[in-house]
Amino acid sequence: MARAGLNAERVTIAGAELADEVGLGQVTMSQVARRLGVKDASLYAHVRNLEDLRGRIALVAADEKSIRIAEATAGRSGRDALVAFADAWREYAHEHPGRYAATQAPIRIDPDLAATAPGPRRAVELTYGMLRGYGLAEPDLTDAVRLLRSTFHGFVALEAAGGFAHSRPPQHSWVRALDALHTLLEHWPPSREGDPA
Fold first, then answer.
1. What is the tens place of the pLDDT at every residue in 32-82?
2. Long-range pairs of 33-39 with CB within 8 A, sequence gap ≥ 24
3. Model confidence at 2, in pLDDT bands (50, 70, 90)?
4. How far is CA 89 from CA 86, 113, 135, 192, in A?
5. Reported pTM
6. In whole angstroms, what separates CA 40 from the centre of its chain?
7. 17, burial (CB in 10 Å: exposed 0-12, middle 13-18, buried 19+)
8. Cβ burial, residue 165 (10 Å; 0-12/13-18/19+)
9. What is the rounded CA–CA span in Å between residue 97 and residue 105?
10. Most CB within 10 Å of its CB: which of 3, 103, 165, 180?
């Protein structure tokens, strides 16, 4: 029988908080149950298993991150939008490392939950919308989205792992990387002849 007051949202938030504290890969159903003060079995009335919980954490994180990016980029365009977008992404990754990891991991998410979750859809709309401000159209839009995601995620992942040991502060390199991305997006190279769309 489900414990009164316990629901899928509370279980997910408890899992997300734990992921931020100990790392997504270290979260177990037993730890989440202890955090909520219930028996392990009580959780299974609300989430199917650990994979389902991770998928729910990923959806919560995608929603939180996209809201933050939307607020940061509202009314901005060009370089200002790019920098606001990137800074919001990086700040979220720093503040919520476990949740952020869930948005980047290959987690199997319940299709019914994914279909009604606004976060992933909003994230795509925000990214493509910001890039259209540079005058890009398909297939260049998709290529640019992949470039931004690779740059942002690569930077924050290396930063989190202590991969920037040089004396130059990572913030300086981050600013220069965004300058370089802005310049590239303004002068996007033409498609090669024969490139598939």
1. 999 999 999 999 999 999 999 999 999 999 999 999 999 999 999 999 999
2. 36/6, 36/10, 36/11, 38/3, 38/6
3. very low
4. 5, 23, 22, 31
5. 0.90
6. 28
7. middle
8. exposed
9. 12
10. 103
Q: How far apart are CA 43 and CA 30, in angstroms?
A: 9
Distance of CA 187 to the CA centre of its chain: 27
Q: Distance between alpha carbon 11 and the CA centroid of its chain, in Å? A: 20
The CA distance from 33 to 27, in Å, is 11
Tokens read off for 51: 């994979």
Q: Are 33 and 14 in contact (CB under 8 A)?
A: no
CB 54 within 8 A of CB 24: yes
On whether the CB atoms of residues 90 and 46 are closer than 8 A, the answer is no
Q: Give the containing element (helix H, strand E) for 59.
A: helix 50-73
Residue 77 structure tokens: 């365009």
- Give Cβ neighbours of residue 154 (< 8 Å, ≥ 6 apart): none
Tell me if 27 sits within 8 A of 15, measured CB to CB.
yes
Distance (Å, whole) CA 39 – CA 50: 15
pLDDT by residue (tens digit) across 158-177?
999 999 988 999 999 999 99
